[in-house]
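#struct-pred

JT: dropping the chains for the assembly here, can someone run the whole complex?
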Amino acid sequence: MKIVTCIKRVPDTEARLKIAAGRDIDAAGLKFIISPYDEFAVEAALQLREAKGGGEVIVVSVGEAAAAEQLRAALALGADRAVLLEAPPTLDGLVTARALAAELKDANADLYLFGMKAADDDQQQVGPMVAELLGLPCVTVVAELELGDGKILCHREVEGGIEVVEAPLPAVVTITKGKYEPRYPSLKGIMAAKKKPLEEKEAAAGPSRVRLLDLSHPPERPPGKVVGQGADAVPELLRLLREEAKAL
Amino acid sequence: MANVLALAEQRDGKLKKVSEEVVSAARTLADALGGRVEALVLGPAGVADVAAGLARFGADRIWAVEHDAFAKYEPDGFAQAVSERVRADDYFAVLFPADSLGKDLAPRVAARLDLPLATDATALSVADGELIITRPVYAGRAFARVVLEATPRLVSLRPNVFRPEERPRAGEVQRLEATTSPEQWRVRMRELVAASAARPDVGEASIIVSGGRGLQSPEHWHLLEALCEAMGPQCTLGASRAVVDAGWRPHAEQVGQTGKTVQPQLYIAVGISGAMQHLAGMRSAKTIVAINKDPDAPIFKVADYGIVGDAFEVLPRLTEEVRKLRGQ
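RK: done, full complex below.
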C-alpha cells in the first residue's frame, strides 16, 4: 500500500504571535511545527501501513526551504521518504493544490492524506482541491478510516453526528482529530530519518489570486469585571447578563 | 456582474438557519453593488417550496434543484450541480455557509471552476467596487483582510456571525433539472450516526456552556448539562482541549486549536484556565462569562463577567437561577 501524506510547516499553535508591518507574522524566535491536523494524517498513514504489514509512506510539503525541518520530523516518525516542493508562501489554496497535483499526478498512490486544515491560514481547502484536480474521490474531516477491499469507510465529523461515508480507492482523505493521536519519534527514528531520502525541487506554482490587504490582532476585549466570589455572586451575574449584556 | 448567488441548505426538509444568514449577507452585498440576490438550494422533491421562504431575507430569485438523492449531502452530486449554476451566469460573488457542508463543497467547486476561495469569513465590505473579506487566521489569533482577484469571488461565511435580516423581495422560484445522477457518484454516504440530536453543533449554537479540567472528572458533566438544559434549545456544550485529550468529552465539543473557533452570543467557561489556543477559539464571543477558582486564570482577561469560585457550588445555583428566570 502506497500512501502520500501532505504536510505544512506552521508556527507553534501555543505561541503568542507578533505581526510585522501589519502584513506578516514576525518569525523571529518563533517555533515551527507540523500543522497539528497534518500530524494526525501522518499518524493515520503510519497506522494504515502497519495494519497492512507493509507499504510506503511518502510525505510531501509545499513551502519554503525551512519546511525540510518538518519533513525530517515526519521521517523520524516513520515516513519512508519526503518531497519538498519549494514555493513562496501563499494564501491561495488553489496555487498550493496545483503544485501538489502536478507532483502527485503520476504518484499512483492508494491514498492521499491531508490534515483537514492548516493551522496558519485555516482555509480548509487544499485537500478537496487536489482531489478535484486529480479527478479522485474525496472525503473530508475524517476522524477514523477503515480499509476495505479496494475501498475505504470513513467516519466523517459533521454537525450533529458522524457520517459514515464510503469511497473507492485511490482516494483523497482529510483527517481531523480522532483515532490518530500522533506518536513521539524514537531516538532510532530520529537517527534513521537523517539517512532517508528528502528530495527538494521547485514547485510548479502559479501566481496567487488571493491578495492580502493587512493582518491584525483580534480586537482587544474591553476589561471585564469579577462579579463576586462563589455562588452568592450568581444573582448579580444574571442581572448583568440580562440588563447590561442583554445576553439572556 | 453585480449579482450575488447564495447557497442555501436544507436538512430534514427544513432550511438551516445559516441559510438565512448567507442570503441576508448576499442582500447587503448586492445592495452595495446595485445587484440582485439569487439563492440556490439542493434537496429532495418539495425543497423549492421550503426555499421560497428565502424571499423574506432578500432573495430576488430562488433556484431549486430537486432530486431525491439530494435529501442528504452528496459531495460529488452537489459539486457538479452548484458548479453548473455558477458557470451559467456572471455572478460578482458566490456565498457558501462555512458549516460542514459548505466547507466540504466550496473547495470542490473552486477547483472545478479554477477560482480562488476565501473560507470562514467573519465580515464582508465593498470599497471601490471590490469585495474585502475579513477572515480569522491562526485559529483566531489574527485576522486577515483579503481580496480575491477573480470573478466570481467564492467566499464561505462563518455561521452565527452574519445576522439574518428580513428584507422581502419577490423570490421567484425556478426549478432546475439535476443533470447529475447517483450512479456517477463515487463517494456515498452510508449512514448518519446522530449525536445528542436535540442540541445544536458547537460551531452554530448561540449559547455555549463549556467545561475544562476544573470539573475534575467526566462524572461531573451532569452539572454542565443541567445548566445547558436550563438555558434552552439554543445552548450546547463545549469543552477545552485538555478534557477532550483526556477522553472525557467528544472531539465534536472541542473549542480552540484542533477544535472549533466559535462566536456565540454567550460563552460560559467553567473550570477552564484559558490556554492561548482556547482563548483564540472563543474570544470573539459577544459575551464571555468565566467561572474559575483561580483568580489569576488567564480566562478572566477575556471574560466580561467572572465569578471566582468553586464550580461545584456556583453551577447548581446558576442552573437554579436560570430556570427561575426562564420560568421553568
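JT: nice. The radius of gyration of chain B is 21 Å. The longest strand of chain B covers residues 130-137.
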